[in-house]
Amino acid sequence: MLWGCSKAPFATAALSDLIKEGGAVNQNRTFKNGEGDAWYRRNQGHLVNSEIAASNDVIYICSSLMPFKESLNSILEIGCSNGVKLEEICSKLSAKGNGIEPSEQAVADGNRRPKNSDITLVQGTGDRLPFADQSFDLVYFAFCLYLFDRSSLLQSLAEADRVLKPGGFMAITDFDPGSPRKRSYSHFSGLYSYKQDYASFYTQSSLYYLIGKHSFSHRLNFFDKIADERVSTQLLYKEADPFLTQG
Ligand SMILES: C[S@@+](CC[C@H](N)C(=O)[O-])C[C@H]1O[C@@H](n2cnc3c(N)ncnc32)[C@H](O)[C@@H]1O
């Protein structure tokens, strides 16, 4: 799936509304004020069950977590767009789903699902999750962290940790070039894609254990020799009891 690759006109939100002190564009506000909708319009044609069910991340996450299906009742997807991926994962793991996404249009479309669907989407950004502490068994950052404003990146990572139960799972799909890179975002002047290994923030704390990693590519279904195109899905376990006490 070639998210954000095609060229399209810049979003129409007034740039001056989105400028923060110091002259940089606030990425979270820009996505909430129109770029989220623009992303959705550009990619809507791919956000259908048949295509999503065959995607690398969905297959990897669902097959890896199948042995834990009984204990996975509630799933949160951050950056969920219209929730079609969340719906697919929840259906495979028999769980109920919540999603958060800055695009008003994607959230409205997603919430038009039949009433018996156990998926609820809310408009917002990952730095403020409107959910109680320890309320999810699986939290999924689905190819969105590279777009998060750097000023609240650590807050966003902490928010996901706050809402995830100890003994739960975290999944992260993102660009994963091997060393951090900052690239201009081709659809909106002043925005950047930040490519780096986001799972390492969690594993370095020793509070999370890396279960596994599936490497693929933004343009291929397998590992890419071109570092800038590399993508991975990493699956983490939030240790229920992370520190061995001795003495
Ligand atoms: C590349 S798309 C991925 C969509 C979907 N999760 C998937 O994997 O198909 C990135 C999504 O993240 C959303 N996004 C951007 N900034 C965000 C933020 N700060 N918090 C939450 N979502 C964000 C975008 O609006 C967009 O829907």
Structural write-up:
The protein has one domain: Rossmann fold (3-Layer(aba) Sandwich). A 7-stranded mixed sheet has the order 3-2-1-4-5-9-8. It contains 8 helices and 9 strands. Helix 4 (56-65) runs parallel beside helix 5 (84-93). The radius of gyration is 17 Å and the shape is globular. The longest helix is centred in the first third of the chain and has 17 residues, at 27-43. Helices cover 28% and strands 25% of the residues. By secondary structure, it is α/β, with parallel strands linked by helices. The protein has helices at residues 15-18, 27-43, 49-53, 56-65, 84-93, 104-110, 153-163, 199-203, and strands at residues 74-78, 96-101, 119-123, 136-142, 164-175, 181-184, 192-195, 208-217, 230-238. A hairpin with a 7-residue loop joins strand 6 (181-184) and strand 7. Residues 3-4, 28, 31, 36, 39, 78-81, 85, 101-103, 125-126, 142-144, 147-148 line the site of S-adenosylmethionine (SAM).
Unreliable stretches covering 5 or more consecutive residues: 4-13
Any idea what the CATH architecture is?
3-Layer(aba) Sandwich
Class in CATH?
Answer: Alpha Beta
- Ligand identities: S-adenosylmethionine
Largest sheet: 7 strands, mixed
Secondary-structure element series: HHHHEHEHEEHEEEHEE
Q: N-to-C terminal Cα separation, in Å?
A: 52 Å
Radius of gyration: 17 Å
Strand order of the largest sheet: 3-2-1-4-5-9-8
Net shape: globular
- Give the number of domains: 1
The number of E-state strands comes to: 9
Q: Structural class, please? A: alpha/beta
Helix content: 25-40%
Average pLDDT works out at 91
CATH fourth-tier homologous superfamily = Vaccinia Virus protein VP39
